[in-house]
Amino acid sequence: MSLQLKRLVSALVAAGAAVVLAAGPAAAFAPPYDPEPYGPYAQPVDASVPKRGCTTTLSNPKVTTGSIPAIQVIYAWHDGGGNNYATHVQNIAKIVDRMDWSLDESTNYDQHLNLSCRTGYDTSTYAGYAQALVVPEKIENGVIGGETPVGVITADLTAAGYDTSNRRYIVFEDFDGTATASYDPVSGLGAATVDGWASGSMLHELVHLGHPNYVDHSKVTETPNVLSYPELMSNPYYDWLLDHNFNTYYDPSETGATFYTSNYPDTRKVNVAAWPYFTTPTCCDVGYSNDLLTAQERTIEADSPSATPSGFSVSGGGWMQVTPSGPDSSTSARYYDGRRSLTMNVQSHANGFVSVTRKPAVTAGQRYKFWAWLTTATSGNVRLRLSWYNSSGTLLSTSDSSLYGLTSSWAEYSVSAIAPANATSVQLSVMSPSGQTFAYRLDALQLNHCNNGKTTDGCRLPG
After folding, report:
1. Beta bridge partners of 355
2. For the chain, is the Cβ count within 10 Å smaller at the N or the C terminus?
3. How many domains, the chain?
4. What percent of the chain has pLDDT over 90?
5. Domain enclosing residue 238, as ranges
6. Of the candidates 282, 312, 343, which is a domain's last residue?
7. Whether residue 69 sits in one domain with residue 213
């Protein structure tokens, strides 16, 4: 079955449709290239994608003793389609370079893939670099005329000597295989495979290997579909960006922070940005997303349900708590951690404010944007507010959003403004006007410094 057909079937099944596939003669394996992901921002043309180069170079890629942890790129073939390495090697290298570009452009931190190459090639030319980077491997037990299981591929890699625990293998299958990630905790062998070649697909599968016990799918979009860009690790369909809200499990600005890898009651936590197969993040290489909050201020994940949220304060009419345990759909903007959001219980006697206690530093004359996801079980109105302070801690002015009417569906709201003269810091607040009694939930906060130089206002796109 072609990758495109597999995806169509998966989408129909997810939508509740009954899918029946008629048997027929096996078709020849289609060309392996999938479209490159196109959102949420346009990618550069091939010629503009920088060549990453080799992080470590070995005479024998199967012997990695003393080498740093790195990613080994493999072109896999079998007798069903033959060895087309010469045809595809430079295209595979370009896909890997796109993966590296995506990682680097996802934030304002300079971060790249650690790539393992082999000696014997002139890497000053692209052809030589591609051959040093991409190693061909025959899959002896590949299924001719059918789908080759990932276990066959990983068994062949192990038998061939690609079995070291300080490597993660990305395998481009030149046959009908499976897009997946496979990790053996006993041997330490981790392999990401795709039979539809594109940077989004392969980066998605690679990031699955970013936890010793396998990183789960990121359940962070309200309604996954091609008309909205989910804020998750690279999506194999249309989104190349790694978590532009930094609220799943990738945050290069705070590598000590960790995020839940799956729904409650799973307790595994990880931050893929600290993965040794990626370079150490270095500020500041401006990419598409630049956030100024800490992980706790964005995700409320450090506190237990029903506790007082760390890093937040309340004034006026209302009181707050970490949302009590309950169904995923009611406790998080991202059906991902399944249990971490803030509940503000609004009281009618005064305007109510829930605020991020810390005031991040800002630069006067530059634009900032405050984002937050909100929902309520009933109804109620709120505004988002930016409060600007000078170096003496004196309030200079405030910038308010429109009055938003919350609904029972999670939605992202924002307010954007230019920091006024003499402003050195800003406080983020959600304000509920007096005269109301209701409860709302707050999650996935973000403060953008709108300086990416790539979008109209310098901020990331909504969503």
Report:
1. 313, 429
2. N
3. 2
4. 60
5. 56-282
6. 282
7. yes
